[in-house]
Write a structure and sequence with these properties.
about 10% helix, signal, mainly beta
Length: about 160
């Protein structure tokens, strides 16, 4: 049978062993998820601009951020599928949420890009009828503004300026 000091000695040795192992573990990141941002200021004739659009090299383009809508009234729907005669019609495909959303504050357009950080982008200013008023390609210089190198984190670029004639 062990005495009180023997048990304490065993516990102390176990703790010392565990402490030495903690130096060998890899770095653990917190929960991952952030939003990278990019700001575009329209100069020249900003009152003519209805929308500023950002497209990356893969032709993935921004669209305005969704706004809340009033709920539609509920209504009864008669079934259109007869299991004894045919296969059900294919389910409609949902439209994916855009990779880039944009909000406007005066002459400044703020793009939220999820965790995307494209190396370049084409910025277009559009009139209300969809006419392209100005378009310019930019190389983007991303800088980390939070998080860490090991785990990633939010990034931003210096503000961009798009001149509209």
């Amino acid at each position: 049978m062990k005495t009180g000091w023997g048990i304490l000695g065993t516990l102390a040795a176990a703790m010392a062993g565990l402490l030495s192992l903690t130096g060998c573990t890899t770095y653990a990141c917190p929960a991952i998820g952030w939003t990278n941002s990019l700001t575009v200021t329209v100069e020249g004739n900003p009152s003519a601009v209805s929308e500023v659009r950002l497209c990356d090299a893969k032709a993935r383009c921004s669209r305005p951020a969704p706004t809340p809508a009033d709920p539609l009234p509920l209504r009864s729907v008669a079934p259109t599928f007869d299991p004894s005669t045919a296969a059900p019609p294919p389910a409609p495909e949902s439209e994916p949420y855009p990779l880039f959303t944009v909000t406007r504050e005066g002459d400044t357009w703020n793009f939220m890009m999820g965790m995307n950080a494209p190396p370049s982008a084409t910025i277009s200013a559009l009139a209300a009828d969809g006419t392209v008023l100005a378009e310019q390609g930019f190389d983007l210089a991303w800088t980390r503004v939070g998080g860490s190198e090991q785990c990633g984190g939010p990034m931003s670029t210096p503000p961009l300026t798009l001149r509209v004639p």
